[in-house]
Design goal:
By secondary structure, this protein is of the alpha/beta class. It has 11 helices and 8 strands. It has helices spanning about 10-25, 40-50, 55-65, 75-85, 100-105, 145-155, 165-195, 200-225, 230-235, 240-250, 255-275, and strands at about 5-10, 30-35, 50-55, 65-70, 90-95, 115-120, 130-135, 155-160. The chain has an 8-stranded mixed β-sheet, with helices on both faces. The longest helix is centred in the middle third of the chain and has 28 residues, at about 165-195.
Length: about 280
Amino acid sequence: MTQTLGLIGCGNMGGAIVSGAVDDGIIKGKDIYLYDLNNDAATTLAKKLGAKACASVGELMEHSHIVILGVKPHQQKAVIDAGGDYLESCDIFVSIAAGISTATIASYHNVLANKPIVRVMPNVNALIGKSVSGICANSVASQDDIDAVQQIFDAVGTTHRIPEEYFGVFAALAGCSPAWTYTYIDALAQAAVAHGLPKAQAVAIVAATVEGSAQLMLHEAQENNTVPQVLVDRVCSPGGTTVAGLLAAEDKGMSAAIRAAVNAAVKRDGELSGS
């Protein structure tokens, strides 16, 4: 990648994305421009990467071919407005905000109506290079535009191309579910503590088991087209402890609660996007 990259918003997620791109050799630090309202965040990240911290949004856009809008949804329009005349200098705009459609972003300024806008939804696991990111784009974006953006996000995990109409569903499955998974892990650990196991040890046991179970599921799905229920049945011996626990959890609504969480997240995403 020879183009320059600008990041507006140098928080944990934005920092992980550009750091991953540098570590993966996608781009050199000297070709990255950074801006954050908290100048210390931009200068600290710039020092780490050998990038340039900019004094304004306009300065960043003046030098950046690809601009990542790494700010909260309610801050995006203000950032676009701050770009002013420098919006013309940018080739591709990338949003990682939940609930903001490419059409909404395009509506923020008349210049954006003719600019490629790519929407990406990474998740928190980008911090360790294990993000699962969804990507879509407006009709102005070419295949090369999308490929250039995907290359950046592939550096911090895996990327799935998702029609924008299903982005709310993807956001629930990949963006929200880490928090639900942490809750599941903590609940199992709490139960173990009630039976006398130290909390730290219980968390380590459960987290490693979740990781291994996910890897086995992916392996079986890829190699044998195995669905999750098949693996559930493998673990549940007739009359055994696993099926006893599973039935007790289902009596309390485990599967129904998970589906409700997804439905609520998709609904909220629709409310944020105005759809």
